Input
Amino acid sequence: MNFAATAIWRHLPVVDRHDVTVAGEVMTLHISGALWWESQRTLIVSDLHLEKASSYARRGVMLPPYDTAVTLDRLATVIDHFQPARVISLGDSFHDGEAVARMTMGDQTHLAMMQLGREWVWISGNHDPEASSGCFGDHCEEIDLAGIIFRHEPLEDRVMGEIAGHLHPAARVRRHGRSLRRRCFAGDGTRLVLPAFGALTGGLNVLEEAWDEIFPSDAFTAYLIGDDRIYPIASNRLRGD
Output
């Protein structure tokens, strides 16, 4: 983190790992944007959007063509760290239905090696409704573990245990005349929304209208992802874009 950003955070809570409770289950937020559930030996990620660059290229919009390799390298690093028995990818793992076929042989092999020896669950998303068919692993719309539902898009209803993605949460804070915007986790104790894990994914400010039905009481926390720390910020201290 550069000096200017450090100055902004000087008087804010600072932790390099942050445990949260979702429907009574303790889980760990990781600075990569992944979620670790120790008691289930489960790693959860969302919105990898693999092959986003090649999808845009087919429409004449040129982006750096290395997003898939970068995203898989990040994921491999987190898997090496936690050594999960199970990985859950919460949808939009691929940017479109033909993305798997466009992956290089090297990237396909890299992904397959990560899957060896562990359960792998692909949740279907709006970009990949076929739940990443063509890849090894289990494919489903949602999965229930210990009473917590894992799905791509959070429901616009009150839930007692849900972990989702889709909205690519981001948050902005302002302090001492300086402003900083970061990817974040967003949660209220019963629901947790994960940030996008992919290298070419953006973020939607958690104060935008799309979030109104997700956290209707405004009593939620944004866990901003710094360079090496997680910063929990109450929703009433956040700023819009």
